[in-house]
Amino acid sequence: MELTAVIETRSLNKRFGGVVAADNVNFKVLSGELRCMIGPNGAGKSTLFAMLSGIERADSGQIFIFGQDVTRKQSFQRVKLGVGLTFQTNRAFHELSVRENLAIPQASAKLENKQAGQARLEFALDAFGLDPNDETKAAEIPHNQLQWLEIAMVLVGYPNLVLLDEPTAGMASEETQQTAKVLKHLNSTGLTIVVVEHDMAFVKDVAQTVTVLHQGQIFAEGSVAEITAHADVRKIYLGRV
Amino acid sequence: MRTIVGLISGGADIGRTRVFWIGFGVVVLLFLLYPTQTSAFRVSNVSYYLLNIPLGLGMALLWGYCGVLSFGHVAYFGIAGYIYGVIAGNMSGNPFGPLAGVAGGLLASAFVAGIFGYFVFYARVQKWIIPILTLVLTLLLETFLGQTAGYQWRIGSVLLGGYNGMTGIPWFQLGGFVFEGYSFYYLCLLVVLACYFGLRMLVNSNFGQVIVAIREDELRTELFGYDIRARQWVVFVLSAMLAGLSGLLYVQWGNYITPSQVGLLQAALPVIWAAVGGTTSLLAVVISAFALNWVTYTLSAQGNQYAMVIIGSLLVVTMLFFPRGIVVMIAERLGRLTARRAAPSQLQP
After folding, report:
1. Which of B182, B196, B214, B348 is 20 to 30 A from B159, comparing alpha carbons?
2. Chain B interface disruption, residue of A57, A90, A93, A161, most B CBs within 10 A
3. Contact between A153 and B224 using a beta-carbon 8 Å cutoff
4. Contacts by B21-30 with C-beta closer than 8 Å and gap 24+?
């Protein structure tokens, strides 16, 4: 069976003043992949996520999600195609309860995915130890649970594609392992996942394919083994982590 | 029915216990009995305090729940009032004139807010600019209305009246029944209760949760698939219509309206009511709007020139010592006390 491209960018460019954040980026993620993106700070990982989700507009180039040209679409229109996204910093609604946080994405849920999506959500809630009826304010729960809450909030929308920006930031090693376990399970159910991550142990654990970004360009792409053996990648990035 | 009760008693406003609702019922009963115990003059004064509450509720919804501060919502108060005056005045003698005036006033305030809100929200104007833009709108309206003196500034047979304002505005009436005096008081009370319960249901609904989410983090909410521009626009128009409702009641109360009703001083008042009571609670703003109107009106009626200075000082004190609002912080303190008292009793066998 031929795998379809869930994300495809064509000659994507983005500059912030004199800083090149994306330089002719041709990025492709196939259906069912669990892709990790790595690279030094300022390599353009988060900017690429921001352009994919519509937070930032590309200076030039095209973005296709599920085969649709979304280059000129607003963020909420892209998300409705079945895309879930978390940010580099946690952006759960801190003043709302856990229950309310999980209720907000419900109205925009992609109902054609309900069966698979609900099973994924219930698995994640159970694995993360989150109670969907918990009335505790999000601001009052531990950091790792807050990170997990945001992943669960994304799953409430029954997405087909999830973009996670540093989902394990600030987590202890056992919590990172638990996150990895959940993501691998979700991916095994057919959910396409793209993760920006600095934690190489986590990347080695979960990634099927790794994309290395450097100075706004795709520097290298391949399996974990290929990337870790790549001399130039070791020089620019892996030697530092 | 259970859904309605659930929405009213949801967690998006203070006051959810049985004791609260008993107290609430007693207060409503006292308001119902008030006209039987006092003079027509005092009833008219309390009508004035009540008629401003929808304007305050609109401010609470827009600012407290949705996070958008409008410093010029009195523009919609004035638009509804003037349009009512024009329509009802021109249909004088027609029993449906006031009803047409009410519909026209509400539609006009919704229409202007809709156009203004469209440009503000769909252009994704930054939040800190919105208070300035809204204030400019109301000051422009005041300036325009102020220069409408003279016979040439009339619509049909109704004169706009410049700084002296529009006078002789007809009472509201349904069929042959004219709402004036005591009946007007009960009309105001009914409108306030309907607005309060309607908004309580709204803020406890999914729509209400989403507007709070927009207040907390616009981008995060948009990335859950919500068109936040549309929701902010809806809340803006709804709150403008609430301001319009107050404007309609105001012109029926005094049978006149002047451009100063959309001026800077009046523009600041709903913001102060919301801030002093606590923007994140509808009930707090109801209490605050009523109490501050009473203070302002009483001081002004006694010839005290410092009414606005006192109200302004109260705002400063609130900002310094009660940043979440006086009523909200008292309610929080009472809630903690009740919880502390309830905790040991749960240990009893």
Report:
1. B182
2. A93
3. yes
4. B28/B193
